[in-house]
Design goal:
elongated, about 55% helix, mainly alpha, two-stranded parallel sheet, single chain
Length: about 280
């Protein structure tokens, strides 16, 4: 994956995490306002947890911290680890009961994520290995769809209908010895195989040729859709746009074009629409 795409995905997940934190803060303010006792209980849980950390480390609270503590809070620093664990559990139970009394669910003040599986980081840990979350693939797909100006998400293998093609055999008009419908069914089978066997190093590239309206772009979209679902990085561009990133641009455009050029070089599959039909220049 090129740096431009990774940076965009990282920014998306950073925004997700900030939104989750903001949502939690909003809920905290709401609950604390409606029930100050919950705020007080949360504060005691924090102090008791701090005392437990000090206890396990064999430390005493510093003078500045001690001066800030109330008499009730100071008692936690005189408890054993076992007593502190019991006190924290009791306080959490008290907090949950208060939440329910106020009409909230017990987990209302827990972190609010778009994806509970990865907690809006994009990665889940399996044993000691981190892998991309299912939501990461969706984010990546959305970026490549946005960059691929020719992509149509409705054009899929599942939506393909051969009934649009004539079942009449007319080699003189169609240039094939079978009906267009039979021909497209064969094309569909080969294109599906290309998408399914994409990782096979012996699989060759494909070229779609034919008259306007015969389904070339549709088939290309089918391939892109299937490969995106498999987590591949695919770009679908008209030939006229393909060469723009390789031209010389003013400084304000150069960075954007460099990013697009990196995507072209770094993607798993580049689909070019109407290659050969672009306008010729004198250069």
């Amino acid at each position: 994956m090129n740096n431009r795409v990774k940076k965009e995905i990282d920014n998306i997940y950073n925004t997700k995490q900030k939104n989750a934190l903001r949502q939690k803060e909003i809920r905290l303010l709401e609950v604390y306002e409606s029930c100050p006792q919950i705020k007080e209980t949360d504060s005691l849980i924090k102090i008791a947890s701090m005392a437990l950390s000090h206890n396990k480390a064999g430390l005493r609270p510093g003078d500045k911290l001690w001066a800030l503590l109330s008499e009730k809070e100071k008692t936690y620093f005189g408890m054993s680890s076992e007593q502190l664990v019991m006190s924290i559990d009791k306080l959490k139970l008290q907090k949950n009961e208060l939440l329910v009394q106020q009409g909230y669910s017990q987990n209302y003040l827990e972190d609010v994520y778009e994806c509970d599986l990865c907690k809006d980081t994009g990665y889940v840990k399996e044993d000691v290995v981190q892998r991309r979350c299912t939501c990461y693939k969706k984010v990546m797909i959305s970026i490549f769809k946005k960059q691929s100006v020719m992509f149509n998400e409705n054009h899929t293998f599942e939506n393909f209908c051969s009934e649009y093609y004539s079942d009449a055999v007319n080699e003189e008009d169609y240039g094939i010895p079978v009906s267009p419908r039979v021909h497209m069914q064969k094309v569909l089978s080969k294109v599906k195989k290309f998408a399914e066997d994409f990782d096979n190093p012996d699989m060759d590239n494909m070229i779609f040729s034919g008259r306007t309206g015969t389904g070339k772009t549709y088939m290309a979209n089918c391939v892109m859709s299937r490969l995106l679902d498999k987590g591949k990085e695919v770009l679908f561009m008209p030939a006229g746009s393909l060469f723009k990133p390789f031209a010389v641009y003013e400084s304000e455009e150069r960075e954007m074009m460099n990013d697009l050029r990196d995507m072209i070089y770094g993607c798993d599959l580049l689909i070019i629409d109407d290659l050969g039909s672009e306008k010729m220049t004198s250069a």
